[in-house]
Write a structure and sequence with these properties.
heterodimer, A: 482 residues, alpha/beta, Rossmann fold, 6-stranded parallel beta sheet, globular, B: 225 residues, 2 domains, 3-stranded parallel beta sheet, 12 helices
Chain lengths: 482, 225
């Protein structure tokens, strides 16, 4: 196997189209003003990206709608799922304590990490203590969020992603562009090239051959890894169980073959009981891919016990805060109910044009546009609340009924009230509102606007509008005709 | 009933507002036009400027009576007034209707102005999702003699989104282009929202797209010819 980290730091090569933030550049989750637009422009120039986004999101959306339709009680289930999530979120301290006690009672270790650095440090410490050199990773968005791979590499541990999409993205030195389908924007030729390089010989751009090559390459990782790192779709407070939902079975291999298993979870992943887990599992796969259940639903409760044949000797659970407690008790707390199914991405007309990279390196689509500013601070992600036409398709698609577009509206309000929104924008809206606070002011200001009409396309928003659209004409007002 | 022209209607699409008034009169209503009306405040509200939105929204409260129904030829302004304005300014809710849902609910007759025409109807997002109004405009167009042809993915936003159209112009235009391309087979693309109309018509004109974009009130009152 060639050296993955060497490929990664080379930067160029496949996928080096400048469409995605390179790993090095994306050291921060912060999303500077203008970044969204710049990356979206790149996606829009790429016909393949647009077609891939259309095809993949349409298919996932259609599958979800069919799965929901086949479930007569889906609306009731969504309401129950919302309640199941909010019950935990509104009493999170208690459930984290209960979960911690349950894991420890079964021989696992729990670490509560306040920050990304704290979480990464715990994992690298585990690797160092156990002499681990190779880490097999199952898909984990929270590990992307805390930039765990960078920390592992810095500690001399080679992380290998084993989810096929994540593996492809890792070989390309890029970041996932969809929380469920990370390599959604890659062509089959790009994938063949990446796997060929890893193989050290050509692999035809054909599904069977590519799957066989990936299987061969990943098998070595599964067998040789010293530590297995997974995320957690849910964690059950009453039993201390970790629930993994995958279609490739890699989660099961990663959590059972290596001597040490580290599971990372955002602190809001908890559900109270196995009954509550059942409610969530009925919705998760249906909403993500349209399946009733994914191919593998794995429940892990504690490390290997005496007399058991397999499973890790050590189980570490890292509960990650990393900004989540900012949301507790606020008007944004419902965002913590998100189950990362991707349904909102698949219906979002902005996501399907801008692509996932525009939202930053980890979370994308409407859920990313809401979550990221809350995790990193509005001033570090100020374009995201506006990366939406507020069409509401996300809210309609959310299985746990998060009012996503209304949360975006709230974030916009906070942008203004916390004075993050540009000074000129605040002045413009204030002047406008003063002029339009009386009918006389409205008549006067619009009469002036009519006089100034020839200049409308020359500067400011009018100029942006006119760059792609004819400016409408201000004629005689309706009120003046009566 | 009271007619709310909306700012975009009053300033940019006065013909469409006149068409709405004609349809309402034809249906037998006595149409009042409160002279103090300005705007519902939505442009500022959707950009997060609550104080500015409140200042403008108060003009609406001063201009309109709570005792008579209010009708506007704009799905998004009706959404603003119905769902957000009362909480924003602290007033009682208004009895406010989008034009086609009002006419449809009253069983109003519409003239046979679109005999033999194939029309595509674009659902504006707020009207579709927040007001839940999707059948009435289609029903009225059919009663006007048109065949209503389905748009591919009628659920997709056209990309206007208020200030979104100038904050993310490239994405916004790509969304408009997709919507316009989908309506290629129809004689016209009809929408009930002045915002979508301004955006789609402006884009069609600039891009040289053959699609004609027409306000629902105009399509019903005078036909799309």
């Amino acid at each position: 196997m060639s050296d993955l980290s060497a490929q990664r730091t080379s930067g160029g090569g496949l996928g080096g189209t400048g469409r995605f933030p390179r790993r090095e550049e994306a050291a921060q989750l912060a999303q500077p003003r203008g970044r969204f637009r710049e990356i979206a422009r790149g996606s829009l120039r790429n016909d393949y990206t647009l077609a891939a986004l259309d095809i993949a999101t349409d298919r996932l959306r259609d599958n979800r709608l069919a799965a929901w339709e086949a479930l007569p009680e889906v609306e009731e289930l969504r309401a129950r799922a919302h309640d199941v999530r909010m019950r935990v979120i509104d009493d999170l301290d208690r459930y984290v304590a209960q979960f911690t006690a349950a894991v420890e009672a079964r021989g696992g270790r729990v670490h509560f990490a306040r920050t990304a650095e704290d979480a990464s440090r715990y994992v690298t410490d585990v690797c160092r203590r156990t002499g681990a050199k190779l880490a097999a990773k199952a898909k984990s968005m929270v590990s992307e969020e805390i930039r765990l791979n960078d920390a592992l590499e810095a500690a001399g541990v080679r992380p290998v992603e084993t989810d096929l999409g994540e593996y492809i993205v890792q070989l390309a030195g890029e970041h996932p562009v969809h929380i469920l389908a990370p390599a959604i924007e890659k062509t089959i030729e790009e994938v063949a090239d990446l796997l060929s390089r890893e193989e050290g010989g050509p692999i035809p751009a054909e599904l069977g051959a590519l799957t066989a090559a990936a299987r061969r390459q990943l098998r070595e990782t599964f067998l040789n890894a010293d530590v297995g790192i997974t995320g957690a779709n849910f964690a059950v407070a009453e039993t201390g169980s970790i629930c993994l939902v995958t279609n490739e079975g890699n989660g099961r291999l990663v959590s059972s073959l290596p001597r040490v298993h580290v599971a990372l979870l955002g602190m809001e992943r908890l559900v109270a009981s196995l009954d509550d887990l059942a409610v969530m599992l009925r919705l998760l796969a249906r909403s993500g891919t349209g399946q009733k259940l994914s191919s593998y639903t794995t429940l892990i409760t504690g490390p290997r016990r005496d007399g058991e044949q397999d499973g890790p000797e050590e189980l570490h659970v890292v509960i990650v805060d990393n900004g989540r407690s900012n949301l507790l008790g606020t008007k944004y707390r419902e965002m913590l109910a998100c189950i990362r199914c991707g349904a909102c991405l698949n219906v979002c007309p902005v996501y399907r044009k801008a692509g996932g990279g525009a939202y930053g390196p980890v979370y994308s689509g409407p859920m990313g546009a809401v979550l990221l500013p809350l995790l990193v601070g509005l001033e570090r992600a100020e374009s995201l609340p506006h990366a939406s036409s507020l069409c509401g398709a996300c809210t309609e698609a959310c299985p746990v009924k998060i009012p996503l577009h209304e949360l975006l509206l709230e974030l916009r309000r906070d942008l203004v009230e916390q004075r993050v929104a540009p000074w000129a924008e605040r002045v413009a809206f204030t002047l406008w509102s003063l002029a339009w606070s009386t009918p006389a002011g409205y008549r006067l200001s619009t009469a002036f606007a009519r006089l100034g009409q020839p200049l409308a396309g020359a500067f400011g928003p009018g100029r942006v509008w006119a760059s792609g659209r004819a400016l409408p004409r201000l004629g005689r007002r309706f009120r003046d005709r009566r | 009933m009271q007619l709310f022209a909306t700012c975009l209607g009053d300033l940019l699409f006065p013909d469409a507002v006149a068409d709405a008034e004609a349809l309402l009169r034809r249906a037998g209503f006595d149409v009042a036009f409160p002279g103090g009306q300005v705007c519902c405040g939505q442009p500022a509200f959707n950009s997060g400027h609550r104080a500015a939105a409140r200042r403008v929204a108060r003009t609406f409260v001063r201009a309109f009576s709570h005792d008579l129904p209010i009708v506007a030829a704009s799905g998004s302004c009706v959404t603003m007034v119905a769902h957000y304005l009362p909480e924003l300014v602290g007033c009682e809710p208004f009895d406010v209707w989008e034009l086609s849902s009002f006419l449809d609910a009253c069983g109003a007759e519409v003239p046979r102005t679109n005999e033999g025409r194939r029309l595509a109807y674009h659902d504006s997002c707020h009207m579709l999702r927040e007001l839940g109004v999707s059948a009435p405009p289609r029903r009225l167009l059919e009663r006007s003699g048109a065949e209503v042809v389905a748009l591919p993915r009628a659920d997709l936003c056209c990309g206007f989104g208020g200030t979104f159209s100038v904050r993310q112009p490239e994405v916004s235009l790509a969304m408009a282009d997709e919507k316009l391309a989908g309506a290629g087979g129809a004689d016209a693309l009809v929408t009930a929202d002045p915002g979508c109309l301004m955006h789609l018509r402006g884009r069609a004109s600039r891009a040289g797209a053959p699609t004609r974009v027409v306000h629902l009130a105009t399509a019903l009152a005078r036909g799309v010819a």
